[in-house]
Amino acid sequence: MLGRRGRTGAAAALRTAAFHPAAPPRLRLRAAYAWARGETEAGRPAEAMPAYRHAVAQLPALVPRHLAPADAEHALADTRGLAGDAAACALALGDAAGALSLLELGRGVLLGQGLRYHDELAELRRRAPETADRLEWLRARLDAVDDVVSSDRRHARAAEWDALLAEVRTHPGCEDFMRPRRSAVSPPPGAEGPVVLVNVSRLRCDALVLTAEGIDALPLPGLTLSDALTRTVAFLGALHRLREPAQDDLLSRLATEDELDGHLRWLWDAVTGPVLDALGLTGPAGDRPPRLWWIPTGPLAFLPLHAAGHHAERAGRTVLDRVVSSYAPTVHALVRSRRPAGRRATPSFLVVGVPDAPAVPPLPGAAAEAAAVASLLTGASLLTGADATRDAVVAALGEHTWLHFSGHGAAEPAVASGSRLLVHDHLDHPLTVAGVSRLDLPAAELAYLSACTTARGGLAAMDEALHLAGGLHLAGFRHVLGSLWEIDDTVSLRVAERVYAGLGAPRPVAERAARALHDAVREMRDRYRATPSLWAAYIHVGP
Q: ∠488-489-492 over CA atoms, to 5°?
């Protein structure tokens, strides 16, 4: 063991490396993180705090523009847990606002780059349209996952990107263009209902609760990082077993569903129950429950917080019976989605159905669902079968404010930016997270992704919200309905019909999306209480 002098010397050496101006960002980050962990283990959180702040500040520099999306994910994979540990240290010092700031800076790094890009490019286009066009062209080439170019070409484009950014920053009012920065949040993010950010760290676990009155920290002693990891692995394993041929046996399926129900009970006891009780949301809320937004971190991002509870009791100890849940990747993303949008006077509907994508099992229910949804919406455009190619869908997205996609979705746990919707030509031209997230659809209102795993992120970068729902949200869709896992073909049609009824079809209103989905899911829950895999996957992302 190191003595006090040895620990002091090690901390000094790590601090020197962390602030060395010639050291690459990854080395500075690793040194700062090691310095922070050493101070934390020695019981000196006040001394650890500057190290954590410095480590978190290095994160944006790990993902320069010349990195392809997959490489950017891998670059951030080594930093898993950093933002959570930094926030936990701040909470140990009683600084809830500081904890929130660190989580906002240290999570959703790639998402944050995209949000800043969309926001600031619009302003640049008003000032210098030709420069904005060139930036947009470069970004599309740098982000493309299917653009096969040499490493030298990527570096040349990245160098041009950096030079163009430097030029833009010389213009008055553009000095901070695309720079990482803290942004003031106004109005308070909890003004329209509580926002609950659940921080999972090896040091401690807490819920940061944002309301109109401010930020409160609620310790969660029943939750540990180890338990969260163990439960998540078991939950995903049970879902996987339900897809295996051996699960065709009814008793085996019911046993697996009961296991899932057990995880939902644990999630209530350890996480959501204490939060709702602390907020005073303690009883059945009747026909119009209050709104609440969840921002899970780490392994909790794979679990359905909105479906946690003791559903067999029928006594209201469930999230579904107390609040209407929505999700957000970060607080900044939620606040941004609440801004007034450039909406068209009349909504325009695009319905895409792909029941027979190549190289995957057919989905006969997808065609029926697409036809049913199209019949519910006034003037809907319908793209199906061989007509539903990537280019056709992308072109149509620019002409419509609503999207309903019925077909296969494919999650890529190792490289989440490659997760995709299986359009008809997906083998050659995939419609990926990276692809949809770089679209610019400022008038978009609602996307309903009736496909599997469209809201499941990747294992390498759990806090990056790299999934199809997040990608469409970033592209401009204020409301996105997606799924955390594989959904049943028959139940998906019933849910869709009930959602559009709740939205007010044939002239639906996007702002009803969260309540419409909540009511549809609760109805399915009441019908299939013993089989949570059928109804607990559906989530709403947005304001």
A: 80
- Taking the CA atoms of 179, 185, 187 and 192 in sequence, report the sign of the dihedral they define: positive
Helix H, strand E, coil C: the string for 438-492 is CCCCCCCCEEEEECCCCCCCCCCCHHHCCCHHHHHHHHCCCEEEEECCCCCHHHH
Q: Label residue 343 by pLDDT band (50, 70, 90).
A: low
Q: Which helix (H) or strand (E) holds 217?
A: strand 214-219
pLDDT at res. 368: 93
Cα of 126 vs its chain's centroid, Å:
30
Indicate if the pLDDT at residue 185 is higher than 60.
no
Beginning with the edge strand found earlier in the chain, give each strand of the sheet holding 205-211 in spatial order.
214-219, 205-211, 195-200, 291-296, 324-327, 538-541, 479-483, 446-450, 402-406, 349-353, 381-384
- Tell me how long the chain is: 543
pTM over 0.90: no
Q: Is 520 exposed, middle or buried (0-12, 13-18, 19+ CB in 10 A)?
A: buried
Ranked by mean pLDDT, the top range of 65-74, 186-195, 231-240, 406-415 is: 231-240
Give the Cα separation of 220 and 199 in Å (integer). Answer: 9
Angstrom CA distances, 531 to 257, 488, 526, stand at 5, 11, 10
Provide the 3-class DSSP secondary structure of residue 349: strand
208-213, long-range: CB within 8 Å, 24+ apart, which pairs? 208/87, 208/96, 208/99, 208/100, 208/103, 209/275, 209/278, 209/279, 210/100, 210/331, 211/279, 212/188
Strand order in the sheet with 431-432: 409-410, 420-421, 431-432
- HEC secondary structure over 371-403: HHHHHHCCCCEEEEHHHCCHHHHHHHHCCCCEE
CA gap 63, 71 in Å, rounded: 8
Buried (b) or exposed (e) across 109-128, using 16+ Cβ within 10 A? bbbbbbbbbbebbeebeeeb
Q: Nearest Cα to 218, choosing from 189, 235, 195?
A: 195
- Is the Cβ–Cβ distance between 373 and 406 less than 8 Å? yes
Burial class of residue 105 in the structure, from the number of CB atoms within 10 Å of its CB (0-12 exposed, 13-18 middle, 19+ buried): buried
Give 389's Cβ-side CA count (13 Å radius): 8
Per-residue pLDDT band for 515 (boundaries 50, 70, 90) equals very high
Evaluate if residue 183 carries a pLDDT over 50.
Answer: no
**pLDDT tens-place string over residues 224-252:** 999 999 999 999 999 999 988 765 688 88
Asked whether residue 307 carries a pLDDT value surpassing 90, the answer given is yes
Cα gap 110→113, rounded to integer Å? 5
Match 């793209």 to its residue by tokens: 383
pLDDT of res. 500: 97
Place of tokens 């904005």: 132
d(CA 287, CA 292): 15
